[in-house]
Write a structure and sequence with these properties.
Layout lengths: L11 E2 L2 H7 L4 E4 L6 E4 L4 H11 L18
Parallel strand pairs: 1-3
Antiparallel strand pairs: 2-3
Length: 73
């Protein structure tokens, strides 16, 4: 059986042209509005889009950002 990645298990792939070039979907989210699954590649810009899509329509009063810094010595 050939590995097809997670993209094969989604109803929709966000940024399909970009993802088809890198051939990777690493996050699947089920939309509460219609129950369909959306595949994302959460590296870089797609990570922000996935978070925005997940919180769309909700009022956010504050946000906490955790930044991890690695110091190279």
């Amino acid at each position: 059986m050939k590995w097809v990645g997670f993209g094969a298990y989604t109803d929709y792939v966000h940024g399909f042209l970009i993802i088809s070039q890198i051939e990777a979907v690493n996050t699947i989210i089920r939309r509460s509005s219609d129950g369909k699954t959306v595949g994302y590649n959460t590296n870089c810009d797609a990570c922000i889009t996935a978070i925005e899509d997940a919180i769309q329509g909700r009022m956010i009063t504050y946000a906490i950002m955790i930044v991890m810094l690695a110091l190279l010595q």
